[in-house]
Structure formats: structure tokens, C-alpha cells
Amino acid sequence: MKVKFGRSLAIAITIGTGLLVLANFFVRNEFLRRVQQTLLDWALILAAVALLLGAVNVVATHLRKIRGRRPGWVYSLFLLAALGTVVLLGFLDPRGVASPAVSWVFLYVHVPLQATIFALTAFFIASAAYRAFRVRSVDSFIMLVAGIIVLLGQVPLGQAIWDRIAAAKDWILAYPSTGGARGIILGVALGTILTGLRVLLGIDRPHVK
Amino acid sequence: MIYCPNCGTANRDGSSFCNQCGQRLGGGSKATCPFCGAENPIENIFCDACGAKLAPLVTPGVEEKEKPSLKGLSLPTKPAGDEEEVRDSEAAVPQEPSAPEGEEEIPDWLARLRASLGDSSEPVGEPPETEEFAAEVPGEGAELPEEELPDWLQELGVPPVGEVGEEQLAPAAEEFAAESLDEGAELPEEELPDWLQELGVPPVGEAGEEQPAPAAEEFAAEVPGEGAELPQEEFLAEAPLGEPLAEAPAEPEAEEVAPPAATPALAEQPEAETPAEGIPALSEGERPAPEAEPLAAWLQEEGPVILELSEEEMAEEGEGAPPAVMGPEVPAWLETLASGAAVLPEELGPVLATPGKPTPEEVGLERAAIPSWLEVLRPGRKREEGEEAPAEEPVETEGVLEGVRGALRLVPDIDPGPDQFVRAVSAAATVTPAHAETLTQVLARSTASSVRPRTVPVPRRERGLPWLAFLLLLAAVLIPLLAPGLVPGGATVPSALSAKAFATQVQNLPPGAKVLISFDYDPSVSTELDWPVREVVKDLQAKGATLLVMSTTPTGPGLAARMGLADTATLLGYLPGQEMGLQRLATSFSGAFLADYKGARVDEAALGVQSLEDVALIITAASSQDAVRWWVEQVGSRVNTPICAIVSGAIEPSVRPYYSSRQLAGLVSGWVGGLAYRQAVSPDAPLEAQSKAAIEAQSLGHLAIVVLIVLGNLAYWGKRLFGGRS
Amino acid sequence: MDSILELLGNSGITATQALMFILLLLVLPLLALFASQLHAGKRIPLRPIRAFERLGTFIGQSAETGQPVHMSLGVGGIVDPSTAESLAGLALMEHVATEATACGAPLTVTVSDPTLLPLAQDTSRRAWETHPYQYQVQEPEARMIAPDATAYAAGVMDILLGERVAANIMVGRFGPEYLLMGETGVKCRVPQVVGAADPQVLPFVHATADDMLLGEEMFAVGAYLRPRPVHIASLRVQDWLRVFLILTIVLGVLLRSL
Known about the structure:
The complex is a heterotrimer of chains A (209), B (726) and C (258). By secondary structure, chain A is an all-alpha fold. Chain A has helices at residues 2-26, 30-67, 73-92, 100-132, 138-153, 156-161, 165-200. In chain A, helix 5 packs across helix 7. Chain B is an alpha/beta fold and 726 residues long. Among the domains of chain B are: 2-91, no CATH class; 497-585 and 612-686, NAD(P)-binding Rossmann-like Domain (Rossmann fold). With 258 residues, chain C is an alpha/beta fold. Chain C has 2 domains: 2-43 and 228-257, no CATH class; 50-224, MTH777-like (Rossmann fold). Chain C has 10 helices and 6 strands, in the order αααβαβαβαβαβαβαα. Chain C has helices at residues 2-10, 15-39, 50-65, 83-103, 117-129, 149-162, 178-187, 202-208, 221-225, 229-257; strands at residues 69-74, 107-111, 141-144, 167-173, 192-196, 211-214. In chain C, helix 3 (50-65) crosses helix 4 (83-103). The two termini of chain C are 13 Å apart. The model of chain C has no long low-confidence stretch (mean pLDDT 89).
């Protein structure tokens, strides 16, 4: 009984909140605007709290790994040490993220690491290109030619090889590519609308038992 | 192979940790034999000293939860760390209701677990009682007034505790408690039935001889659970025993639900002489396959179970009593009741008078009280007289079990006890329709799937591919650095309209104009976007523009500070809320930023910006199309200030339509776009060597990928044409 | 057309608002109509989507080998535009978690955005609680790796490389960092089912996944895996709206060109 009441309450809150925000989209009303603003502020606060929960989850997961001496547990030690250090640095200095120590970590650890991991994409693109661009049919041949044109059309080298390659690239990107992408985006948008409505109507309840 | 004592996974010889669960293997820890106390290597399945079974008795995945209940029986002791691990994993999930843990508490999971295991220390059972019980309990929810309790149960209300070993009674009480907990029923201390309170329930898994048994009150007080409180008279009625027992014979679909693997077990059941017909069959059917085998073996056995104990042992334990002959239906503790001072309930009369076997009373013998630890080990197989025990079964050579064969073998050899019925029925009760449905669906789907899976071809020779890719990309980076100007095309691009439009926007700014730059990219693409952004900022500063810098990503302000903008511009900092944040910013600039990057208060009046209309140009530097979309949709639709974008090459195709539709006043993408912008602003200014090298490297990188595509096709077609010899 | 917009604009209604209102007006009655038809026994055939059929195989393999199935819910959250994709991932996760617990297959679910974590944990807990022998099976593990997309990708790569997963299911919002994970899966020869909606990621998905849920297929999880009339009705509404959009586009092009 208790459970059922909680469930109904959760669904009622979902529907009520959703309708308020939706109404604000169609009707210009100061009260509705304020309500929406408050709700959005709450969402932000909840997101920040979720980040805390997430941090707890990360710490717990890695502590478990260390205790169980699972493969790679040493890296978990590093992770926890790094996490603790950065958090401590942030808290010790009243300037927070603007403190020189945090800035230093950001500039000389965070940015290079991120850039390096992302740069790995180049290698992965290379191996995926080797494997995926096989000419098995007429379609895949067309795709291959288009791919090469776009690849070379973006760089000065391509211009040197064929001076109209940039125009060809622009045409491919502007028409066939954008057309296909928009078709997908429209489909996704419809799916999004229906998903949103199902949640709004209480049909899909990912948040309630 | 080393078999993990924790989960049973086979690991390569020499492994230090289990592949599957991380359990330490090998010499790292010792397993203490629970029976003789000898230290064994952890990978031992049987004890070196006494032959006791050390490996887990149940399927993997169970062990973490069941460990406490097996303590003192046969599981090797695990490092304490793992127990903490279990606790951790539960602590890490904030939402879940935390189950009480620890040895002094008996959480319901432990009780349930015990109920589903085949190693109960309760050797006794009461099938006739169960049947009768089922008949008398009309079903869940039905009222069962106290006066309608079966006589025998009422009699039990005053058990001769002194005579019956606490250990023996305890499991029965536990059984009841555990099952009532299945329903999540709360059993407050004062509402515990008297008879249960008096029994004194020891903690599960510690019914052994060493552990003192805490009082039942304590147990009940610690029982977690929500739901209806059960007054005493409703306790039995609410117990889940009633419903499944009443319904059991009328549920033929139980067999359909069963996994196919359980079928052999089902087939064997008709032969088995089961005291409560129908019920075990049902529960068998719904049990998971791994459990079916042991049960089937047990079910095949007929008739009473003879406990093979030497006279010597019996002398020790039962003061000269002959080997105990017990009817399978007769619980030892009930029999003790019967033979002792307690009044034999009427219902028990026929039970004890098992046909063909004289009861101990009839032959004038006094029944020995068998301690629970011995009951646990009672062999389940009845052997005919003269039948030799299988040779592989270790014969106990010392201790109280001397002469007993196979006492410490696998679960099947341990008599699950007739209370298995109770457990099986309770398990059947908990098989939810949802679960049954899921299993049926899974089974149906696995056979119905007609579509052949498509697989990504992974050529065998791909092993060298990473190296090839690495070398090609390394060459692409090194060649421009070592030999600048070698790459055809160099660092010149034809004028791009979008970049030219961007340059025009910057050039047309009035002196001292306010420009808002939003750093909406993350550090991962900083190598691509820093340069064009720096070029634009340089030009803006040259024009004397007042720069307001913000970000919709938490890392953006750091990237701006990295360019020195914290000192040369107003660094407003991070605007939370993404799309909604921008919507708010577009409706009212004031109040959007309370404090800037350095923590100082933002004074809109001093800045001279009340709304985004006061800004001459908005520039977003973005690595996600969403950020550009937010600016266009939330800001562009509300204010008339032109918006320009500097984006990474990856998102250019999806952002370009905004430029085509004039929602973006200018667009620069990546290094190449930056170069085009630069050529438009100052065509004659020389390019720094580093920037030149970067653009040439990009040219070569693209070429390298084209080369790889061609190589991939050559390999593919070579293989196709020459049958793999190529 | 312009005059209609002008008329609307004068009454304080933007074109977007008008369009959304028309869509809403279309959707709700259609949804009710189709749902009632389905309730009345009408059958609407669904074309087979291989990715959904593969899931059962993955779980079976996982149960047999004891190797975990990895499921990624992407880098999206539930308080931003990626919500719908994240919810689609969650719906699929609910199904996978229920079947995995039913079969005793270990499942590891990873998220990047912290707002998704409580939902993922709740979903795994619910799936586990429906299991009758819940204390004999592992509860699916839902964990957050990092809120940053690139760091998340690195964490998933580590799982794919180090935890010998039986299968990799990824459904949700992904950016270019997808390639890091997808390609690692290919290198480890892990069978992969991927659902993504972002057109710029789809080429990567095509190159690395064994089976795909492209674009709107992601949102059909409910209709395929939890076939309730209203879910199938919602798919049908989607199709009708698509036809409506196509007609609108064609009409718009004709009106503008003529």
C-alpha cells in the first residue's frame, strides 16, 4: 500500500511537472515562467548532488578493486590519490578552481591527458578506415570515393592534387550528407517527442517501481 | 589448472589471482580445514589431513552471500577483505535499503539463503505435518485464529527446552522465521509467537557447537522488513507456507516454466517416494537446474534413512544407544519430544508409527540426542546391509566420525532432510510470475532467433595494423617538422566563404565594442581549437574590443585562463545549465553571473552590459554541435547580436547548415578554417613555423588514412582473388 | 504561408509553438486510437531488428562463460537534450538486466553523467529484486566512470581490455569518443550492439558494431522488448508523423518553388 502510494505520487509529480513546463512553452505567463525557472534550478542542484553521489560511487568502486586486489588495482590507487589531491588542493585554497595549484594541475595534467587520449582517435580512425572502407558493392564504392574526396578536400594537400576538390567536398557535405543526416535527425526528433510524451503521460516510468 | 575456491573458475597454473573474481590463489592464503583444523593450500578441494571437502558446495555467485551460513562447515576461510568488499558494494549503492549485516545479526537475506541451501543443519522434517499444515492453513491472507492452530503446534508452544538441544530446535524456528520474512513481514519482538520466543534461535550458520545462541528476541528485533505488522494469530496465516502448499498440486504449468536442464530431475520424480506428493515435484520443477541433480539423487532414495554410526560413536553421543533408525518423516526433535517428558501430540501418533519399522519406543529404546553438527553431516544415502561404500569415499579414521564413509562429501550425500520440502515450497512461492515469464521468453527467443548475426570482419593479419597506422601517422607528424615545405599544397587554402564572413564580422567591429566569447570546448580538442581561437582573440584585442569571456562547460574558463584571458579580459566563468543557462542569459544578462572566475562580484553596470543586445558580437568556440545549437536556438532567436562559431572539424558538417541558413554570421572550423580566416584578415602576414607544420601534418595525416583505406582494399581484394594467399 | 505566420505572430504565437501544438494535437488522439485498436486485438507486424535478437545470445554466452556483459549508457544525462537517448538506453538496460539476472549472467553497466547513475542503479536493483533466488545471483553492477566524455571512453576501454567481457552493448548519447570504445571492442573481438542517434557518430558505429540501432530504432526498445500495446501504438504514431512531415516538406518545397 505504501509502495503503491509512493508510486502514484511519483507519477503524479512527473506528470504535473512535465505539464507545467510544457504549458510554459505555449503560454506566456509570469507565474509559469517562475515555476519553470525554479524547477530548472532544482534540476541543476540535483545534478550537482548527483555528481557527489557519482564521486562516492567512483571511490567505492575503486576501493573495492584495491581491497580485492583485482587486476589493475594499482591504477585504482593512482586514481584515488589523484582524486584526493585535486579535491584537497581545491578546498585548501579559498580561490577554489582559480587557485594556482588547481590551475597548474588543469594546465599540465588534465589538458595534456585529455588531448592525448583524444588524439588516440587518429589511430583508431586509421584502423577503422582500413577495415571498414571495403569495396564490396557499388554502394560501398560510392561511399569510398565520397570518403576520399571529403578527406582530401579538407586539407591543402587535396587542393594541390585537384583544385576543385574543395568544391566537390562542399557539395557532398551540403547535399547528400546533410540530407541523410537530417532524415536521421527528424526520425530521432520524432522518437524523442514520443519518448517525452510517454514519460509525461506516465506510460514509461523509468524512475518508479 | 587451479580452481578458484571462491567462484570455481579454472585458472591457469601459477595464477596468483582468480581471473574471474580476483580471489587470491596459490600460497597467498591458507584454507583452514573446518573439521580438523589443518592448514591446506587454498586450491585444495579436499583437506590434506582428513579428506574433508574444502571447495564451495554451491554455484558461483552464491558464495558471497552464503558464506556466513557455511562457516564452520566446509568452506575454506576467505580473507577478510572480501567480506568487506561485499559490504562495500552494498554501501556503494545509496538507494538500496541496506541489509543489516554482521555475524551477530541475522538479516533476512541470510535466512532466505539458508532456506534455499541444501546444507541445513536441521536434519529433521515433517512432511505429514507439512501436508496437514497445508490443509489447515487456508491460504495467504486468510484468518487463522489461534484456537484453530493444530493441536500439535499448540503443544509445541511449551517445548521441553531442557531436553531438546537448542541447536536442534533452532533450525526449525529459523525456518519459520525465514519464511515469514520472505513476505517482508515485520515481526516485532512482542508479536513473536510464544513458542518461537522460547526456542532461542541461534544465528544462522552458527548453530555449531561453539557459538552461543542469542535469544530469539534479539533475532526478531533485528529482522528487517516492511509491510504489515503481524499480530500473533495472523502470523501463521500470513506465512507463505500456506498458499503454495494449498495451490501446489493444482499448478501443472510449473513444469513448463522449468528450464530444460531440470527435466531429468523431473522425470525421475515419479519413482521417488515422496511423503508429500506433488509438492516436491512442483518445487523441483521450479528450481534452477544446478540444484536439480542433488535433489534428484536424494529423491530416488526410498524409505528411512539409516545413520551409519559405529557403536563407539553412539556410545559417546547417545550413551550406548544402538544405531539410530529413523523414519524419514520423523523429525528427531519431535521424536525426542515423543520419547521424553513432553506429551506426544495426537497428530504425531501415526507419524511415529511408521509401518514396517518399529519406533524406538516400541522396541524400548531411548532415542539418542544427536547434536546438530552431526545432523548436518548425516549421510543421505541409505545403503543396503553389506553394501560396500564406494571406494573413493574417504573413510574417517579418527574423531567421532571414525568409520563413517563419505561423511564430508558433496551436498548430494548430505541428507537435505525432509525439511527440504518446506524450503522447496517456499522457493516455489517466491518464483515470481515475472521471473518465470522472463525465463520463458529467453528460452523462446534463443530458439526462435532466425537472423544470422552479422559480424565485423577482423582480418587475421590485422595484428600488424596498429604498427602500420602508427608509423604512417608518425611520419605525417615528423615530416613537416623535419622538412617544412615538402608537403604539396603547403599551408595555403582557397578562401572559404564562411571564414571570410567571420573575418568581416571582426573587422567591422567599432572600436571599443564589447564581444562575448564563450569557450564551449573541452580540453580534448584544445590542440585543434586553441590556435584559431587565439588568432581571433589577437585580432579582437588589436581592434581594442572589450572581451567578455564565459563558458558553458566547467573546463572552459580554465582553457580561457590558459590563453591569458583571465588578466586581459573579463573572465565571467562557467554558466551552468547548458541550454537552460543560455536561455536565461538571453532573457536577462544581469544575475546570470554572480561571481567571475576569480570570485569577484560581477558588476553589470560597470561592464555596461544589461543584456546580450549590448554586445556587438558573440563568438562560441565549440566542440559539440549541441553548444552551437543552444546559442543559435536560445540566444539567436531572442537577441539580434550576430553569432559566429569556431568549431572542431568533426562537428563542422552538422554545424554548417546554421551558417547556410544565416543563423551563424561566420564559421571557422579547426586548423584549416583558422588558416582561411587568417588569410582573409591579413593575407600577407607570415605564418609561424609551428602553425605551418601543424597544417602540413594534417594534410599528411589525411593522406595516411587514404593510404590505409587503399591498403585495406588491396588486402581484401587480394584475398578474394587469390584465395587468401595474398 | 507567410500570412498565416504573420497572423500567428500578431497574436503572440511563434511558428515553433504553432508547429509543436499541431504535433501534440496529432500525437495524443493517434496514440489513443492505435492503442485501443491494439487492445481490441489488432496485430501490427514489426520488422525484425537484428540487434534486439542478438541480446539474448549475448546474455546466454555470458551466463555460460561467466564473463560479464558490459553495457554503456553513453555520455548523456537526464537533465539535458540527451535525455531521450539516455532513457532509451535505460529501457534497454532494464530488459538486459532482467534477462541477465534471470539467467545468472553477470552484467556491468557504466554511465558517464552522474544524473544517470541513480536511475541505472535503481534499474539494476529492480531487475535483481524480481529474481526469486536473488541472493544466489549477482546484482548487476551500475557504476559511474567519469563525467568527462574522453575520460569515460578511457574507462570503458579499460573494462573492455581488462575484464574479458562477453559482449558489449552501448546505447545512449555518444560523441566522437565513441570510436575509442567501439574500436577497442573490435580489437578485443567482443561482439557489440550499439545504438546511437548522432549522425556524426553513426559512421563510427557502422564501422565497429556487429549490430546497430540507428537513430529512431533506439526509441523502439519498448515496442520490441516490452511489447505493450501503447508502445507499439507509439511506434505507429511515429510512422504517421513521419508521413505527415514528408508531406509537409514536399508541400513546403512546392509552395516555395512555385
